[in-house]
Design goal:
CATH topology of the largest domain: Elongation Factor Tu (Ef-tu), domain 3
Low-confidence stretches: none
Number of strands: 12
CATH class of the largest domain: Mainly Beta
Strand content: 35-45%
Structural class: mainly beta
Distance between the termini: 9 Å
Largest sheet: 6 strands, antiparallel, barrel
Number of domains: 2
Shape: extended
CATH architecture of the largest domain: Beta Barrel
Helix content: under 10%
Length: 203
C-alpha cells in the first residue's frame, strides 16, 4: 500500500501538454518513516504505523516503541492495508516518489472550521417568505411533534460547521518533485494551509 503523511502548502496551476490549465494542490512530504507494523497473526489486521516530522519532546513509553526505527516523529498515524501486500519494513523512509504521475489517490484531511452556523448555511435550508405577515425568514421552523416529546437524534439544526474529517476520492497525482519532496494533486484538498493531509493509493 502506498501512503504518505503530508502537509498542505497551497494551490497553484500548471499547463498541460494540450494547453489546458489545471488547478493542483501542493503537498509537502516531511520525513515519513515506518515506525511499526500490525500483522494478521498478532493483531488480527494488517497496517503500517508511519511517523512524520521531527520533535524533541518524546515521553518514555513512546521512546521505547520508537527504538527500533530510531525516529522522533511529531505525527504518528496507523494506516490500514486491506490488501495485505505491504513490503515496507520498520525504519524504511517513504518519499514523494513512492507515487507516479497519473496515479489515482484518496486524500483525507480536516475541513476548515466555519464556526457556529444556521440551518441555511449549514444544511442549505430554504429561506422563509418575506411577505406581509411572514416573520420566519431564517428560523429553523418546526423541530418536532407531540410525540415522542423530544427532539430526535440527527435532526438538522444550527450548530458548529466544518472541522470534520473529509476524504476525497478519485484524485490524480499531477506533479512530483523528488528534490523538494513535494507532490501535487489535481483538484482541491480538504483543510486549510499547513494542515495535515494523508494521501493513500486508491483501491
Amino acid at each position: 500500500m502506498k501512503a504518505l503523511i503530508t502537509r498542505k502548502l497551497g494551490m497553484t496551476s500548471v499547463i498541460s501538454e494540450d494547453g489546458s490549465v489545471q488547478a493542483i494542490t501542493l503537498l509537502s512530504v516531511d520525513k515519513n518513516i515506518v515506525i511499526g507494523k500490525r500483522t494478521e497473526a498478532i493483531d488480527g489486521y494488517s497496517a503500517d504505523i508511519i511517523g512524520a516530522g521531527d520533535t524533541k519532546k518524546i515521553n518514555k513509553p513512546l521512546s521505547g516503541k520508537l527504538k527500533a526505527s530510531k525516529a522522533t516523529p511529531k505525527i504518528i498515524k496507523e494506516l490500514r492495508d486491506k490488501s495485505n501486500d505491504s513490503t515496507l519494513n520498520v525504519g524504511d523512509t517513504i518519499k514523494a516518489d513512492v507515487f507516479n504521475v497519473g496515479d489515482s489517490v484518496s486524500v483525507t484531511g480536516t475541513s476548515k472550521g466555519k464556526g457556529w452556523a444556521g440551518t441555511i448555511k449549514r444544511h442549505n435550508f430554504h429561506r422563509g417568505r418575506k411577505t406581509h405577515g411572514g416573520r420566519s425568514y431564517r428560523r429553523v421552523g418546526s423541530i418536532g411533534s407531540m410525540y415522542p416529546q423530544h427532539i430526535l437524534k440527527g435532526k438538522r439544526m444550527a450548530g458548529r460547521m466544518g472541522h470534520e474529517q473529509v476524504t476525497t476520492h478519485g484524485l490524480k497525482v499531477a506533479l512530483i518533485n523528488p528534490e523538494t519532496n513535494v507532490i501535487g494533486v489535481a483538484g482541491s484538498v480538504p483543510g486549510p494551509r499547513k494542515s495535515m493531509v494523508i494521501v493513500k493509493e486508491a483501491k
